[in-house]
Amino acid sequence: MGTLNHDPLVCERCPTCDCLTGCQYMRFDLEAARREKQKILRGEHSQVLNDCATCYACEERCPNANHPFYQIVELQEKRGLLPVPAPITRQQQIMMQPRGTMVPARVAKPVIDMCYFPMLTGCVRGRLFEGASMIVGSDIFCNIMWLHFGKTSVIRERLPRMIDNIWNGYLKDSGVDEIVCFHDECYGTFTQLAPAFGIDVPFRCVHLFEYLAGRLDALADQVKPINAKVAYQRPCSNRLAPGTRHWVDDIFTRIGVERVKRTYDGDNALCCGQVLRAHQKDDLADDVQARNIADMVRAGAAYCVFNCPACMITLAEAVAEAGITPILMSDLCQMALP
User: Fold this and answer.
1) Tens-digit pLDDT profile for residues 134-181
2) What is the pLDDT of residues 40-82, one digit of tens each?
């Protein structure tokens, strides 16, 4: 993995410092934001390194695609200011490491990349995924989670191997040149993070939502409108792929659901709170989750729609207790195909 594609002069000349002034978890006026940004550019300590919620939003907010979030994460590791306690980080490094147990296999389009979530392979079923191949396991894990841990070194070490495993273990000899990323994490890794660090990805990535929209079009005569109000929990990693956002509304239109209007959606989406707890910021996590769920309730949502498994695991119980049904986007689409 090469050097981060970042031009410090672009940040120095930025008139708005949107990456910090627009942060939902830290409060900076323009003067303070510029001051803290200069510290980061000089490789010095900044309160940002301690207080960053690692929600990825500043990557999306930067009008120059100059990777402000990756700058923060790189400096956290360089200065030893890891957001998650070291024992937990070490434990996760061991638990999430590649096992070297992958068995190369022939696959056929569409190839659904389930990352490291074998418990969700049952979601790939029925008419939506007819004829699909699946790949899953520790040896193709995208490893983007280490951004939350301030450990880009782990990504640098493991990601090239994961990409090589996907290409040479499954796709190349099968004559397949693309995968469908079931999670935003993989899509963001391969389409934004890898290029930012100068690593080649030899296959094309299709976002799950683009794939679902296409399948719903192909099955349009079988789709039955669900006629329900839904809230969408936007995951952190979708901040790395803002160009995919329109697919959410496109899918909702196709299956006959109404996306409720609420405060914490789109650019203003709040994270699920799991990472904040890992950072030992329980009070902030409680506040974020309470505001987020109350917002869904006020808007009258019957379903809370997820794409990130971690978000769903984190919020599902609390959402259900509030009278809202948690559901993955793919399962919501299955409901429209009775």
Assistant:
1) 999 999 999 999 999 999 999 999 999 999 999 999 999 999 999 999
2) 999 999 999 999 999 999 999 999 999 999 999 999 999 999 9
Show the tokens assigned to 319. 């959402």
* Three-class DSSP labels, the chain: CCCCCCCHHHHHCCCCCHHHHCCCCCCCCHHHHHHHHHHHHCCCCCHHHHHCCCCCHHHHHCCCCCCHHHHHHHHHHHCCCCCCCHHHHHHHHHHCCCCCCCCCCCCCCCEEECCCCHHHHHHCCCHHHCCCEEECCHHHCCCHHHHCCCCHHHHHHHHHHHHHHHHHHHHHHHCCCEEEECCHHHHHHHHHHHHHCCCCCCCEEEEHHHHHHHHHHHCHHHCCCCCEEEEECCCHHHHHCHHHCHHHHHHHHHHCEEECCCCCCHHHCCCCCHHHHHCCCHHHHHHHHHHHHHHHHHHCCCEEEECCHHHHHHHHHHHHHCCCEEEEHHHHHHHCCC
Q: Does residue 1 surpass a pLDDT of 90?
A: no
Residue 3 above 90 pLDDT? no
> Where do the domains of the chain lie?
8-78, 95-211, 220-335
Top-level class of domain 220-335: alpha beta
- pTM of model > 0.85: yes
